Amino acid sequence: MFSDSPLIIALDHPSLDAALCLADRLDPSRCRVKVGKELFTRSGPDVVEALHGRGFQVFLDLKFHDIPHTVASAVQAAAEQGVWMVNVHAGGGRRMMEAARERLARHGLETRLIAVTVLTSMEAADLAEVGITTTPAEQVERLALLARDSGMDGVVCSAQESSRLRELCGDSFLKVTPGIRPSFADVDDQRRIMTPREAMVAGSTHLVIGRPVTQAEDPMMALAAIEQELAGSEV
Ligand SMILES: O=c1ccn([C@@H]2O[C@H](COP(=O)(O)O)[C@@H](O)[C@H]2O)c(=O)[nH]1
């Protein structure tokens, strides 16, 4: 049975064994899992296969950003592994996103395809240093509209932008939000953050949560606390 929970747990572990050790304590009917750059670079497709074998839907968070042909081929390779969701950087532009979308369609692959807008670790000063002089909120809006018009199923953004994107792009456009910080957790390197409950109320469709669970003294207790907070939210 697949999860209809909004929770996606980021398995940011340095090895296959460490990731599976946590996955074996999670219930695939209560959350999805995310495989990112570190784990995939160390373990490759084996980790995806192992998680599928345990009944999890997998978000392969490799944030592809390259020329259109290369990204389309990488997205196809990810989708052929049967992952639930894969992503690209919206900053790669319309032609890149359209090529990825067309490749999935041509091969009848139903993996959800979303685009990263502005990383949740970035604030205005970080954008200014790379030559973007608008606010993070404005830049997220611009890239989300481009992503929607290029055929993406949704975006990665911070929960601080979810409410505006719900107005602009509708409920069914996915708003996948990392930078989720329950009141008990450290901010770490994240900058545009919200609590799980605030994020759901704001219109996030999925919450990506890593260290607040994976680095907690008792990961299962941390996850239960988040679920309890969500059960009380009016969404
Ligand atoms: O804008 C983004 C895009 C991706 N991420 C990823 O989400 C998790 C967040 O982990 P935490 O430990 O909860 O901070 C991590 O895998 C990032 O690579 C993001 O944080 N922001």
Automatic annotation (TrEMBL):
Annotated substrate binding sites: 12, 34, 61-70, 120, 181, 190, 210-211
EC number(s) from the headed UniProt entry: 4.1.1.23
Alphabetized UniProt keyword annotations: Decarboxylase, Lyase, Pyrimidine biosynthesis
Domain Orotidine 5'-phosphate decarboxylase: 6-226
InterPro entries in alphabetical order: Aldolase_TIM, OMPdecase, OMPdecase_AS, OMPdecase_bac, OMPdeCOase_dom, RibuloseP-bd_barrel
Active site per the UniProt annotation: D61 (for ompdecase activity), K63 (proton donor), K63 (for ompdecase activity), D66 (for ompdecase activity)
SMART domains named in the record: OMPdecase (SM00934)
Reaction catalyzed: orotidine 5'-phosphate + H(+) = UMP + CO2
Gene Ontology MF term list: orotidine-5'-phosphate decarboxylase activity
Annotated metabolic or biological route of this protein: Pyrimidine metabolism; UMP biosynthesis via de novo pathway; UMP from orotate: step 2/2
UniProt key word NADP: no
Pfam families linked to this entry: OMPdecase
Top enzyme category: lyase
One Gene Ontology CC term in the entry: cytosol
UniProt xrefs under CDD domains: OMP_decarboxylase_like (cd04725)
GO biological process, any: 'de novo' pyrimidine nucleobase biosynthetic process
Function description: Catalyzes the decarboxylation of orotidine 5'-monophosphate (OMP) to uridine 5'-monophosphate (UMP).
Subunit structure: Homodimer.
Family of this protein: Belongs to the OMP decarboxylase family. Type 1 subfamily.
Protein known as: Orotidine 5'-phosphate decarboxylase
Organism expressing this protein natively: Billgrantia endophytica
